[in-house]
């Protein structure tokens, strides 16, 4: 063997590997809490460029919003960089130009047009700008909004709404439910392994024994409701319209 050279046999190498593994295990054991998530500045800036909210960015990175804010402070990322620096007059003029091409558009579509021009502002600022630029259009859109139907039921057991969910039927899981239209009481709710009429009418009969017979029921046209229809017509006859479909 040459002078000054060092020779390691197999036993020494194995011992060194074992020592390294033990040191790694010791380091992990000494950690407090769950392992930290590695988040780089580039990851945050790329997600900010996608115009995601801070809550969405935190969810994507697998951290809480407080941790996200700490990382942004650490990397000197300004919170306000997410929004464009633009005056109210400039914003109003840009919206007027967009309205010249397409006047009847809502807040979300207008936000998309602004972002296509590289302008991103808070929803509150956009809403205020729309009121300044087009106050008449705002009132017109309010007047033409969706009118909700009034749902009125005079008393409990006047009508039960009955339906089933069949999305998991491939796994032999079918959910059947009935709810009282007046009180919103769930009169029956069960997950069964089939969608047979006999199963549904048994649930209905158990519910009527506990809560009483409804005057009407509303169902879809599914064959699983045939037993309920028969029960209702036998109880009230054809003239009283006991079944709505």
Automatic annotation (TrEMBL):
Coiled coil: none annotated. One of its GO terms (biological process) is DNA integration. Gene3D superfamilies: Homeodomain-like, Ribonuclease H-like superfamily/Ribonuclease H. GO terms for molecular function: nucleic acid binding. InterPro entries: Homeodomain-like_sf, Integrase_cat-core, Integrase_dom_put, RNaseH-like_sf, RNaseH_sf. PANTHER family: EXPRESSED PROTEIN, INTEGRASE CATALYTIC DOMAIN-CONTAINING PROTEIN. This is Uncharacterized protein LOC113053479 isoform X2.
